[in-house]
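Example record used in the benchmark description.
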Amino acid sequence: MVLLVVLLATARSAYAVVISGTIKNRLSDTISVSFNTNRIAYYPRQYFAVLARDGSFSMSFDVPEKEYTTVELKHGNRVADLILDPYDTLLLTVNAAHFDSTIHYNGRGSAIQNYVAAHTVSKGRMNQYAMRLKESIPETPTAYLKALERERKAETDYLKLHKKDLPLRFVNYWTAYYEYYNYFFMQQYPQVHEMLRVRRYTDTIPDSNYKVVAQMPLAFHDSLLQLPPYLLYLTGAIEARMKASGFSYFMKDTARVRRFRDSVYKRVYKDMPAGSAEFYAAQGIYAGVRSQPLSDTRALYADFKKHFATSTFCEWIDKQIAITERLEPGQPAPEIVFTDSTGAPVPLSSLRGKVVYLQFWAGFCKQCISEMLREQRVKDLEKNKPVVFAYVSLGDDADGEAELLKKYKIEGIFCRARGGWNSNEAQAYSIQSLPAYFLIDQDGNFALRNPASPVMATQQILEIGKLLK
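Model output (structure tokens):
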């Protein structure tokens, strides 16, 4: 394959990465990259390049200084992982008809990207490691620990065979990536295993399930804050160990839940190094704004600022508090224009007099599809009542999602948010994860802070029923 070398401008912005090259048998007219640099919220950056007639392209974008950034490169329906360093200059060639097996890089940073590409062919994309760990959660604690170690060893053995040309810093990064993913899934085991066993949500966890957590170390290192699995691990390590030591609670016992939370924060500020403690507390406050009373959030935030008065995370927490105040029950729901089965526009404001159950989703979100299917029981019960089910897609595969809606006979009104996560709709409703739900009353106002999901069908029906006049 002939590689088109693209001449790059001499002036480059600080920490810019440049990717250029040629795509043979292209699947679309563009290539894109996306990644998230906001550690406490999901606001992905996206960059696009248009392919020339011969399939050549060039793009440049900034990445954080002094750390690796995990990036998704996408062309058509093909996706590749990249782990980029500041100032990388990559020249890519690929035959899109055989995407995974033909993708190849030259230039600064190419050794790492070629390793990641070869790993994808041999062992799957990086996120498939998590899928393999999930598949073993139904196992007993002893069997699950063996499965975790087996998967980690397979990764380290593969690395040993292929690390010859890799920088030591990357070797350490890649090793820690899978080590901390294992620690994170140790935290998940007690409750997720029990929920799978009883086939429903439960916060009654047998002591035996915590044998897995007992094997998880408390290993905090600020040098790993660039590592996504380390951040996942941080968000629950102390909680998991406290629960394993006997500090149990039921979610309905709000006083005990609050005491548990406060105890966790005290340990975090005392036991974690500064950077890890700052991240933990900031993400916890940020994530909790929507699920707890604002008075609780403000108290936690005031304590956070005593420790980290100049934290860059304060800007995002302030924004989240402001957004939550705007999304409080009684506040008007922002306008969205849907279409019905005939293609006619249906503004949300035109649905006054009806209860609207609003879901944000995407075709790549399996949980979204599963819960949309579960909603059919609720729809059948509400069929002759003034209740509307509305769906906003943040996905970018319009044709694929249309097929899913047709295949599963999903009924309702629909909207495709242009710009996905960065769309006006996602920003107005502060969407940071999928699926996301909102319940809007007959006056067009938010009814609840956290409405029941379709998994909790009985609760969902009761919540809707209370709003019908």
